[in-house]
Predict the structure of Exopolyphosphatase / guanosine-5'-triphosphate,3'-diphosphate pyrophosphatase.
Amino acid sequence: MGKSTKLVSAIDVGSNTIRMIIAEIGENTGINIIDEVKKPIDIGKDTYNYGKISIETIKEACKILKNFKKLMLDYRVTEYRAVSTSGIRESANCDYVLEQIRISSGLSLEIINNAQERLLTYKAIEDYLPDFTNIKQAGVLIVDIGSGGVEVSLYYDSKLQFTEYVKIGSLRVMETLADLEKITLDFASVIEDYIESNIYILKDRIKPYNLSNFIGIGGEFTEIYKISKKTDKEKSIKFVSKENLTDLYKKIKQMNTYEVAQYMQISEKQAEMVLPTLVIFKKFVDLTQADGIYAPRVSLRHGILADMADNIYNTKRKEEFLNDILSSVAYLGKRYRIDDSHALHVREMAIKIFDKTKKIHELGSNDRFLLEIAALLHDIGKYINLNEHIEHSYSIIKAQDIMGISDSDLNIIAHTARFHNEENPKSIDSYKILPYENRIKISKLSSILKLCDAMDITHKRKIKSIDIKVKDTNLIITAHAKDDIPLEKWYFMKKADFFEDVTGYRPILKVKG
């Protein structure tokens, strides 16, 4: 193994399977998979049925991960990332499960939300679907079926337009409808009606794009892809036609679980998931003009490897996905009718102040990105109430599912947006209970956002640009403005105190015509 490569491990503790990939990643050589292992587990069945994971299942998970850790040591893995999704995340005893796994196996398991899972999976698509760039340009619906839920994302003109998460994952559907399966002769129709009742609100958001491309990920789609009829051309582009998918669905809906397992040469546990997976894909592909489904056959663990490579080598893909996130944030703002011009101007000034005051705040690149998002969304609450918009901005942002953003970071964004017009964060209960580190970040970021919002308080962009200079304990901001800005100056002075309280530096606004 060369100096420019690393041996790493990606572990996905899923709802019904625990998987691990060991791979060599390099700046120039990409990702080379060396070994893959997987073990079945009943985490999701416990959580979705009983609300918590049983002691027996916890012990089994600990045993599996302990063996995975031994294999990692045998390979001399230098870095790893282990994540879990809805199966553990939604369990009532989540914290205890994580601690028992840590003590037993020595592995720290990271709980990620749906938005983070989506970003990781999409990162892997580029490596496994060579024409992905052109497909995004033309427009594509991506449907990623997990055990607990379905991630739906829409790209158009190479930009991520929106993402949504719906709790209709293949395992969750089967567990939810288990009693009905016993008393109906047409269980497939029951699943169809159930899926339809959960996705009807997305129809009006998807259909107007007339999408010609569809990408399917997750569920048992890898096995569905293998068994589906394909021409040589379809094999070369990893594609299943809509016609062949429909034919397979008609066959599967007539079979019981044992027959599906025998027909597809898979385990009965996997076979249970095939019918709901087919129904979900069928329902979504019908909302597009696509002739079939691209099947890059990627998973969360492939995305973990791609993300590790991005972070170690600071790849171009990392920047592209950050832009995707900002595109989805901009789309969110449009839905709530924010003033685009004001939001973009505030964002531009906020980034400039952040970059010029690094020695003052000592925050990192991720914090800068959170400030960008908060700047774009700080006025989103005005959609509900003009006079009390800050509380509504906080609530709306907290309720969002922004691709790639963790729950902790979303909390920072929401509080930063709230405090762009709030004088005393310490009076807010949701702020007081946060960890010290997050409270400090929020205060620093919101102190910058306050100044920038003040400099465009009229929403007329009277200040065309700003220059920033730190002198002694003063932050001197020179505003280039053609018009008089008495309101901006007055508001800036009101917000300057908070910045000084937080950083020890006094903001001073100077104006040049």
